């Protein structure tokens, strides 16, 4: 079935405590996208796509609007993206993406999480060289040939293109992510994305023994509980 079945199908589910995490994450990401470009979604495609994803996950409009207002200078926060790499139990590795207004606070909390399970952070590229930076888009469609041909005509060459039971999954250079979505939405106006993200994906995955899995699960939860953490990438197979 290929790589499509090795990537996670969705971000954190929008239920219970996880809902607040999603709201916080999207508020920061929308703010950062608006600060880096224009706070007008019509003039900032990255921002526009983020807002679309936020609405799909039922992030309230007032949270989106507050993030945009802050980016326009009506709020004092300044968020920076920082990425940490670390070693978990066994042969597991972890990459943690954060958006923070206080790097010292964030790295302290990340390091404390690793220390609690007797594991450690690594230096830059100690882990990430074993991951691919990819855009992944997956959706249901019978238009496989038309989609593939349209991408090639636009000068977009997917690193991988899979179709299984009318579910198409496209693996892309991140720079081609938004142009690909523009093409798809012209071909399939009512498209519903199953996977819609740019991220880091392990070149090889590992399965941990029971003891190491327990330690890994504890570490993952400690990291996920940190508000500044927006995404966690790992090479561990999920049951």
Give descriptors for this structure:
alpha+beta; globular; Arc Repressor Mutant, subunit A; four-stranded antiparallel sheet; Alpha-Beta Plaits; 239 residues; 3 domains; 7 helices; 41% helix; single chain
Lay out the secondary structure.
Layout: H1 16-36, H2 45-56, H3 61-74, E1 80-87, E2 93-100, H4 103-116, E3 120-122, E4 131-140, H5 144-153, E5 160-164, E6 167-172, H6 177-187, E7 193-202, H7 210-224, E8 229-234
Antiparallel strand pairs: 1-2, 1-3, 2-8, 4-6, 4-7, 5-6
Helix pairs in contact: 1-2, 1-3, 5-6
CATH superfamily of the largest domain: YebC, transcriptional regulation domain
Strand content: 15-25%
The DSSP helix count reads 7
Q: Oligomeric form of this entry?
A: single chain
User: Total domains, how many?
Assistant: 3
Spatial strand order of the main sheet: 3-1-2-8
What does it look like?
The chain has 239 residues and is of the alpha+beta class. It has 3 domains: 13-74, Arc Repressor Mutant, subunit A; 80-129 and 203-234, Alpha-Beta Plaits (2-Layer Sandwich), CATH 3.30.70; 132-201, Alpha-Beta Plaits. Helix content is 41%, strand content 23%. The chain has a 4-stranded antiparallel β-sheet with strand order 3-1-2-8. Helix 1 packs antiparallel against helix 2 (45-56). The radius of gyration is 19 Å and the shape is globular. Mean pLDDT is 87; it is low at 8-16.
